[in-house]
Design a protein that fits this description.
Layout lengths: L14 E18 L5 E20 L3 E14 L3 E3 L2 E3 L5 E2 L2 E10 L7 E10 L14 E12 L2 E12 L2 E3 L2 E3 L2 E12 L4 E12 L10 E10 L4 E10 L9 E9 L2
Antiparallel strand pairs: 1-2, 1-17, 2-3, 3-6, 3-7, 4-5, 7-8, 8-9, 9-10, 10-13, 11-12, 13-14, 14-15, 15-16, 16-17
């Protein structure tokens, strides 16, 4: 039901969903000086397409996969800690595969709870900033609910990977969290509301990407087989991978 937050509302018997999300980010990677001002804009513009598919089994089990690809990135690159950062180009990202089981509630219940695990495969390009460079395992908890016209969702996960270094900066395990709250209109076909996405490091001396971002969007169920979405987002604090602003568009097809 959302862009960044999983609503745990999957249902059906061998029900397939295919989707694509377009994600344009303005200045998603910049280097800041000690005063918090931008000193270098490594990536000025980035477009990422997230191509996804899922199948739901026995109404409560969902298997899914996502393949991100960046058909267009631009920026002059830069230098950090004596390391030259390349100007970005077309690149594939890290493929994700996941399995989730709803352990409580139905697809439209006031309270839904799901447990799952997502694996992030290092298939992307570190040179073009589209890969963690390590295999990651991400156990997660998903919570959602439908209370009349009100829709809410939240999630938390532990992103576990081997520590790795880029330009003198160490990256490691993260705690990720998301929340969303919205209202349905037009007989439930239109969902409008904000989302909040954040993360914090689980290891001292390591950095994380995109630690806090606010989004506001709308999703429309055009037919029983098609759903569209639009959203705008902004970074709340300066962080690695946090854009000045972001625009999102989605299309989902349920055959």
């Amino acid at each position: 039901a959302w862009f960044a937050v999983d609503s745990a509302s999957f249902s059906g018997e061998r029900a397939v969903t295919l989707s694509i999300v377009g994600d344009y980010a303005s200045e998603p990677l910049a280097i800041f000086d000690r005063n918090g001002d931008v000193s270098q804009r490594v990536i000025t513009d980035s477009l990422v397409l997230h191509i996804s598919g899922s199948v739901t089994l026995r109404d409560r089990v969902r298997l899914s996969a996502t393949a991100p690809v960046s058909p267009w990135q631009q920026g002059p690159g830069g230098e950090y800690n004596g390391m030259q950062l390349a100007s970005p180009t077309f690149a594939f990202g890290d493929v994700g595969v996941a399995g989730d089981v709803r352990v409580y509630g139905g697809p439209r219940s006031p309270l839904r709870v799901a447990l799952g695990t997502r694996f992030s495969l290092p298939t992307g390009s570190r040179t073009n900033y589209t890969s963690n460079g390590e295999l990651a395992v991400e156990p997660r908890l998903l919570v959602g609910g439908s209370l009349g016209p009100v829709e809410y969702a939240a999630g938390a996960s532990a992103f576990l990977r081997g520590s790795n270094e880029l330009a003198g900066v160490m990256f490691g395990n993260e705690l990720r969290y998301q929340a969303a709250l919205g209202a349905r209109f037009a007989g439930g076909r239109l969902l409008v509301g904000p989302e909040l996405i954040g993360a914090t490091a689980l290891q001292s001396g390591t950095e994380i990407g995109t630690p806090l971002e606010a989004q506001f969007g709308a999703h429309v169920r055009a037919t029983s087989h098609m759903r569209f979405g639009l959203a705008a987002a902004a970074g709340v604090i300066n962080a690695i991978g946090e854009p000045t602003w972001r625009a999102l568009a989605s299309f989902a097809w349920i055959p």
